[in-house]
Amino acid sequence: MKSIFVLLALLFTFQISAQQFEGEIAYSISYLQVPKEMEGMESMLPTVMTYYFSGDKMAIQQDMMFGSQSVVVDNATNTGFVLMDMMGQKTAIKVDTTKGEEETAAPTVTKTSETNKIAGYNCTKYLVKNEGMDDMEAWVTTELKAKMGAKSPFGTVDGFPLEYVTFQDGVKTRFTVTSVSEKTIESTKFEIPEDYTIMTEEEMNSMGGE
Q: What's the whole-number mean pLDDT along residues 15-31?
């Protein structure tokens, strides 16, 4: 279950202004550092992550060697679910999207003079310090109709990150946008397919999925 909540944390990082942006944003994933016990297993980790946005709804999808997993959140109703398709076993897990909302100190954000172009967008480099976390760096653009979410670890960064680095559980990861597509997203992207078995977090945990 840990990987599910990592995806949820990533999803809460972003928030799209209603009626401003609808479409998908794809990131490539590269692993800069992994724990010793994971060395040699990098090929089994996801290398692409795609966000889908439509109104108050957001989804994030990752494909892996043995299947895929997605997280969907409706910010208007504070509801969400996880879709897991592992070796043909399809499970939908309803999650509490309000978990982990305890107050934390605001991050310290420093805007640098460094600039770069990523996926055709002009970006500025920011340095971000969060209490209890490794320092982060992010390349941010103001040319997208998107803004950071209230739970974002990037604090008061002005714009949308097209590249950033995270460090969690001994894994240092770089996410880089490879494409941005403004288009209509089908409503089925934010629904539970009929062939998925629906479970609660508690039911999943009782089966040893934690």
A: 77
Domain boundaries along the sequence of the chain: 2-205
Length of the chain: 210
Q: Is the pLDDT of residue 10 over 70?
A: no
pLDDT (tens digit, 9 = 90+) per residue, 75-125? 888 888 999 898 889 999 988 776 655 556 677 889 999 999 999 999 999
Beta strands (DSSP E) in the chain are 14-15, 23-33, 48-54, 57-64, 67-74, 79-86, 89-96, 108-118, 121-129, 136-141, 147-148, 160-168, 171-182, 197-200
Contact residues for 114 (Cβ-Cβ < 8 A; gap 6+): 124, 125
Q: What is the CATH number of domain 2-205?
A: 2.50.20.10
